[in-house]
């Protein structure tokens, strides 16, 4: 249930991030040499990224926002009988083929590609009957499809009511401009790239609009990873429960170093790998 998982995942992610930053700052080699060039989060994770970048004031404010976001998304996904209307399917194959399959199966119903995860994985979200047809179309075109264990159709048009209400919550939050580059789910680029100081919109209002859109628009994770690497990022550390994103990153680019932090064991392993990378770079220099 998304109203439970969103605050839970946010809490674990912020805890892992703080543990990582504290350990890095105290490390004799990494503390003064390692620079964080950018940050990003997948879907809900973008709120963790915004918290780390100072856009969201503190964890208490972030927890309040994501808890209400989860409640709004849960409500938006229900029909008049209190039943969930939609879901999500992960499809494996070329992005273009999956998008065509989704278009073929939609037939006027809510169904669209919503997570562009890697060159060979795209997630489609929509109404349950449309998802059934999408799976059938995938089978016809020899595309592997897997129904995901989620409670609703995130980032689809089903989330439009949630996005409208979320916008008001975010506007009231007085969001700040980020202290570090945040890569946007909606564009795959710097989240502030399209903000212009002279257009009369504050940074907080701009970010509220962008994050409200994020609830009902696709996540361009592949583009985020590609743009990070193009900007010179040499290592990407996933923080929070699991290491799904690390696997997706490797499917986008196997050369970039990937690590994850979700507990003390993975934190220690990440620090060891970072130190090894640092020593290798120092030797090359």
CATH architecture of the largest domain: 3-Layer(aba) Sandwich
CATH fold title of the largest domain: Malonyl-Coenzyme A Acyl Carrier Protein, domain 2
Principal-axes geometry comes out as globular
Count of folded domains: 2
Mean pLDDT: 95
What is the CATH first-level class name of the largest domain? Alpha Beta
Structural category: alpha+beta
Q: In this structure, how is the largest beta sheet organized?
A: 4 strands, antiparallel
Order of helices and strands: HHHEHEEHEHHHEHEH
**Proportion in β-strands:** 5-15%
What order do the helices and strands come in, and which of them pair?
Blueprint: H1 2-26, H2 45-52, H3 59-76, E1 86-92, H4 95-106, E2 111-118, E3 121-127, H5 128-140, E4 144-147, H6 160-172, H7 203-214, H8 221-230, E5 235-239, H9 244-252, E6 257-261, H10 264-284
Parallel strand pairs: 5-6
Antiparallel strand pairs: 1-3, 1-4, 2-3
Helix pairs in contact: 1-2, 1-3, 3-6, 4-5, 6-7
């Amino acid at each position: 249930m998304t109203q439970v998982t969103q605050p839970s995942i946010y809490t674990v992610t912020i805890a892992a991030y703080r543990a990582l930053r504290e350990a890095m700052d105290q490390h004799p080699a990494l503390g003064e040499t390692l620079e964080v060039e950018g940050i990003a989060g997948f879907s809900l994770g973008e709120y963790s990224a915004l918290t780390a970048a100072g856009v969201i004031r503190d964890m208490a404010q972030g927890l309040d926002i994501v808890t209400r976001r989860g409640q709004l998304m849960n409500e938006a996904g229900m029909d008049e009988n209190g039943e969930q209307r939609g879901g999500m399917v992960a499809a494996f194959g070329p992005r273009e083929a999956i998008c065509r399959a989704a278009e073929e199966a939609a037939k006027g119903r809510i169904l669209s590609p919503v997570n562009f995860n890697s060159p060979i994985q795209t997630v489609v979200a929509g109404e349950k009957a449309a998802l059934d047809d999408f799976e059938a179309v995938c089978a016809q075109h020899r595309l592997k499809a897997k129904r995901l264990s989620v409670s609703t159709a995130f980032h689809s048009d089903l989330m439009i009511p949630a996005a409208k209400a979320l916008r008001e919550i975010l506007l009231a939050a007085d969001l700040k401009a980020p202290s570090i580059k945040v890569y946007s789910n909606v564009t795959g680029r710097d989240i502030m790239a399209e903000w212009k100081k002279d257009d009369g919109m504050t940074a907080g209002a701009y970010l509220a609009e962008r994050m409200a859109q994020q609830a009902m628009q696709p996540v361009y994770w592949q583009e985020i990873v590609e743009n990070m690497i193009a900007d010179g990022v040499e290592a990407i550390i996933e923080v929070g429960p699991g290491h799904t994103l690390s696997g997706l990153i490797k499917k986008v680019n196997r050369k970039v170093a990937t690590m994850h932090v979700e507990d003390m064991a993975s934190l220690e392993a990440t620090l060891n790998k970072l130190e090894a990378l640092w020593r290798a770079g120092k030797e090359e220099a």
